[in-house]
Amino acid sequence: MRGPGGRRVKSCLPDHDVDLELQDKVAVVTGAGKGIGLAITKALASEGARVVAGSRSTETLDGLDRVTPVALDLAEPDGPARLVQAALDAHGRLDVLVNNVGAVRIRVDGFLATSDEEFEWALRMNFFTGLRATRAALGPMLDQGSGSIVNVASVNSFFQPDAATIDYGAAKAAVVNLSQSLAQEFGPKGIRVNCVSPGQVGTDLWLGEHGVAETFAKATGVDAETVREGATAAIATGRFTTPEEVAALVTMLASDRLANVTGINYVIDGGLVKTT
After folding, report:
1. pTM of the model
2. Cα dist from 269 to 155, 171, 188, 224, whole Å
3. Known catalytic residue at 266
4. How many other CB atoms sit within 10 Å of the CB of residue 242?
5. In what order do the strands lie in the sheet with 96-99?
6. What does the alpha-carbon distance between residue 97 and residue 77 come to, in Å, rounded to a whole number?
7. What is the rounded distance in angstroms from the CA atom of residue 151 to the CA atom of residue 162?
8. At what angle do helices 243-254 and 35-46 cross, to 10 degrees?
9. In this structure, are strands 96-99 and 26-30 parallel, antiparallel, or unpaired?
10. 255: which DSSP letter?
């Protein structure tokens, strides 16, 4: 990235010595307060972008250089549009949208115990948040004739979906499908839309209190560490992906250095998925 006066400064991206041309670009990140979203916010800011970061809680975002925290509930119907408007009010343009916000509830009792209301919850948290943010962002992006949208999906959208994440996987599959459709419609107008699908990531969603490992442990009568070790054994690299590694991929896709890449779902899973 470039610092004041155009001087090259070290990026937070690992072993990074490429100018991603994000200096003073305006980016909106949803679900930015922790985990992958926080890592993406920091990575974009380190590349010189001005980041408007939306989260219900902004404690982790307060005081970050080049970051404007916005406290709001993105699950509310007008939440995503209000976040996009905050970026336009502050900076007058929008170059990058990262739809990261999402949530999962492990369904230990299977499909027949998963109600319509629970499917609706999964779609609201994982699909409609991004749909609404994208709808709000496309107007200003079309006006300027450029923009990059990166949607954080999941390997659950396609890889051995099971009853434990059946509603989450369906919602993330909808994210991928929508992204590919939008890439075709808006590619001729200068707007790129891509997805990043992580496997297991070392965040609270998997490893925290009430996370995937703890939930499975309680349901099966083992401890959370045993569940984590079992999940790790299926990964070729032998470890979970870090939030910073996901953020590095998202930041690359946000950059116009990849200006002819659109409609792609990039998997980052340490070799969990053995076939494509």
Report:
1. 0.89
2. 8, 19, 31, 20
3. no
4. 16
5. 67-71, 50-55, 26-30, 96-99, 147-152, 191-198, 265-268
6. 18
7. 22
8. 50
9. parallel
10. S
Distances (CA, A) of 189 to 139, 166, 182: 12, 35, 11
Residue of 168, 186, 216, 240 with catalytic role? 168
- 186: Cβ contacts below 8 Å, ≥ 6 apart: 138, 142, 193
Show pLDDT as tens, one digit a residue, over the chain (276 residues). 444 444 444 455 555 567 899 999 999 999 999 999 999 999 999 999 999 999 999 999 999 999 999 999 999 999 999 999 999 999 999 999 999 999 988 888 889 999 999 999 999 999 999 999 999 999 999 999 999 999 999 998 998 666 788 999 999 999 999 999 999 999 999 999 999 999 889 876 667 666 666 766 676 676 767 767 767 888 899 998 999 999 999 999 999 999 999 999 999 999 988 876
DSSP state of 52: E
Please state the length of the chain.
276
Angle between helix axes 116-123 and 166-186 (nearest 10 degrees) is 40
Rounded Cα distance between 66 and 46, Å, is: 8
Burial class (CB in 10 A: 0-12, 13-18, 19+), 136: buried
Is residue 266 within 8 Å of residue 168, measured between CB atoms? no
The residues facing 8 across adjacent strands are: 2
Structure tokens at 258: 């990849």
